[in-house]
Structures are given as structure tokens and as C-alpha cells.
Design goal:
Length: 374
């Protein structure tokens, strides 16, 4: 990397991206700070039950202020890029639609695919920067043998964010820097203190940025009310895997596969064992419930694929498949179904495979690729 390179840093207002900006400045690069303005946190605050203000969360006004303060401290130009309309179209609206259709979406991955890398790279190029740097915990490198850019898990496995980055294209990987990929979180905080960054001890954000308090059902109601759209009636029956009707529910958006909370009180009569959500049928509005053992499955279909370490899947491939952010990758075999779908056959049955979630495939530390569980 040339010492004269101009790099745009995606500054979220957190300690990680702020440290990246300070690091690159200290290394002699020309650095430009960019923050995406994605959502007006006060937009739905008038809805009953919604908080009046949201603080200390990803992409909030407080974070924009923190990012600007860091940019001023280290002496770099700083810009806020308003992408609220695109964020609503590409992240918020699909999030609402998915839940109403009985699936469990991952808005952070959609945001990475459609905005944080796509839009930031376009903006960076328009202001004279050919590459961007982010505070994600991941690594990328070019492999001349395969003639491909490879995405790898970071040194700090506890902070691994590659699960949310499986949708990155070869072009995006070639123009992105992950300076924290070889560092641990404690090392990053220590470095931030060394640069005298005021937010060196700022807590990490854990929630979805546009959903205050994590109550996605309340958010959906407030959003649809604002859009003057009635909440669709998706109420229906709770049934067992044999088709026996054991209760009723108020709407499929109240459930996700593997859920136990809220099931027992909806059942007719006493059930000796706890019931979990096994399946959600968006057409009949039936929610299938059953025992924990019934949550286990050996296979799943994954579509809308993006390959990283390979160009495409031909022969069956051995991988470790991750089906949730906190899921320990499990050994499996990938088999091609079509150009855009694979079947994943696990060595050992996995709990609560959930439509709408991402499945990411690994070989050692390399991300082979990933897609969406169907």
C-alpha cells in the first residue's frame, strides 16, 4: 500500500473505526472520514410505547457527533452522507416484509451489501479515494494462484464479523481495508488510548440500529402506521408436526424458528413438555410447534449465493457452515442444486435452522461464500 494513498474511512462513531482513522493518519496516509446517515432515530417516537430518543446505539446522532469529534481531533476532512431513503428501501422495508412472511431477516448484512460497502465506495471514488477502510474484524488478501480476493476470519475470533460480510463482491474486497483484522479488541482499545481518543472506552453497540430497545414487533407496528398501512392479519393456528391444532396466535410476525417464549400461554390445555416454534407457513398462517428434539435437522437449502474463495460450486465440497452469528460452525457437505442454490447436509443435526437467516461457509479461516436460508 502506497504511503501516498488517499483512503476514505467509514466512521461509525465507535472506537473501532475511530482507531482505524487514527492509525492510517499515523502511517502517513491521506484520510477522509465518511459517515452514512441512515435513519432518523426520532422518526417514530410519537407511536405509543416507542422511546422519545435513542442514545448510544449504532448510527445514532450521538455517533455522528462522536465521529465528527474524532475527525476534528486527528485533523482530517469529514463528511456525512445522507442515505436515509436508500436505507429505508433496501433494509427497513425488506426487514418488515420478511417478518410478515414468516422469515427472520438480518438487516446488518443487507446494510453491508447495499450501503456500507457499495455506497461508500462510490462516494469515496467521487472524492478522490480509491479505497475505503472500516473497523470490521475481518481480514482480506489477494491470492494470485486463484486470482481471487479472499475474506478471512480475524485474529480475535470473539469479534469475528465475517458472517455479516459474506455478500461482498470481488471488486468490493479489492478496494477495502480491514486494519483491525490482526488485532484483538483489548489491543484496539489500548491503541485508541495511545492516540488519546476520547471514546477509547465507549461501549460496543449490540442492537439493530433502527429498532429502539430491540422490540421489532413494536417497530413494525409503528412503521406501518406511519406509512398508513394496516398491519396485515396473519393470525392463525398453532399445530403440531402431525397437524393437531393445539392453540392459536395473533400473527406470524410474533415468531421465529426456535422460539420458546410466548408459546405455552397460547396452547389449549396443559402440555407436559415445553414447545418451540418449528416452522412458519406464511400462506396458511399456521405455526408448527413441537419439542426441542424436533428442532434438529440434517439438511437445509441455501439460495441467493455469493462465492468468495471459489468462482462457483461444481463438485460437492466439505465446509463448516454457520447458520447464525453466534452459531459455532458445523461440519457439512455442500451439494449443488442449481447456479443459485445449494443443499447443505450436516454431519450432525443442527438446532433451529431459520429461513431468512444467512448461512456462511468456511474452510479453516477462509470464507468460501454464503447465501440465505430458504
Amino acid at each position: 500500500m502506497s504511503q501516498q494513498e488517499t483512503i476514505a474511512v467509514a466512521m461509525s462513531g465507535g472506537v473501532d473505526s475511530s482507531t482505524v482513522a487514527a492509525m492510517l493518519c499515523a502511517d502517513g496516509h491521506t484520510v477522509i472520514g465518511l459517515t452514512l446517515q441512515l435513519w432518523n432515530q426520532r422518526r417514530l417516537s410519537g407511536h405509543e410505547g416507542m422511546p422519545e430518543a435513542v442514545q448510544g446505539r449504532c448510527c445514532s446522532i450521538d455517533d455522528v457527533y462522536d465521529a465528527r469529534r474524532v475527525a476534528e481531533q486527528i485533523g482530517i476532512p469529514y463528511y456525512v452522507v445522507n442515505q436515509e431513503a436508500r436505507f429505508e428501501r433496501d433494509v427497513v422495508q425488506p426487514f418488515v416484509r420478511e417478518y410478515l412472511h414468516g422469515r427472520t431477516p438480518i438487516p446488518c448484512t443487507l446494510c453491508n451489501n447495499h450501503l456500507k460497502f457499495d455506497q461508500l465506495l462510490l462516494t469515496a471514488r467521487s472524492i478522490g479515494a480509491e479505497r475505503i477502510a472500516t473497523g470490521h474484524y475481518a481480514r482480506n488478501e489477494y491470492d494470485p494462484v486463484r486470482d481471487r480476493w479472499i475474506l478471512k476470519r480475524p485474529a480475535d475470533k470473539a469479534k469475528d464479523q465475517t458472517y455479516f460480510l459474506f455478500g461482498l463482491t470481488q471488486e468490493q474486497l479489492s478496494r477495502t481495508l480491514f486494519p483491525l483484522g490482526h488485532m484483538t479488541k483489548p489491543e484496539v482499545r489500548q491503541l485508541a488510548e495511545g492516540y488519546s481518543l476520547a471514546l477509547a472506552k465507549k461501549p460496543d453497540s449490540q442492537e439493530i440500529c433502527f429498532i429502539p430497545g430491540g422490540d421489532y414487533k413494536l417497530f413494525m407496528e409503528a412503521y406501518l402506521e406511519e406509512q398508513e398501512q394496516p398491519l396485515p392479519d396473519t393470525s392463525g393456528e398453532l399445530v403440531t408436526s402431525t397437524g393437531e391444532v393445539v392453540g392459536a396466535h395473533e400473527g406470524v410476525h410474533h415468531f421465529t424458528v426456535g422460539q420458546r417464549k410466548g408459546i405455552q400461554q397460547r396452547l389449549k390445555g396443559h402440555q407436559p413438555n415445553p414447545f418451540y416454534v418449528l416452522q412458519i407457513d406464511p400462506d396458511s398462517h399456521r405455526v408448527t410447534v413441537g419439542t426441542e428434539d424436533e428442532l434438529l435437522t440434517h439438511t437445509m437449502r441455501v439460495g441467493d449465493l455469493n462465492w468468495i474463495s471459489i468462482a462457483s460450486l461444481g463438485e460437492p465440497m466439505r465446509v463448516q457452515a454457520k447458520i447464525r452469528h453466534r452459531h459455532e460452525p458445523a461440519w457439512a457437505t455442500l451439494q449443488r442444486v442449481s447456479d443459485d442454490e445449494v443443499e447443505v447436509i450436516f454431519d450432525e443435526p443442527q438446532r433451529a435452522v431459520t429461513p431468512g437467516q444467512a448461512a456462511v461457509f468456511y474452510q479453516d479461516d477462509e470464507v468460501v461464500g454464503g447465501g440465505w436460508i430458504r
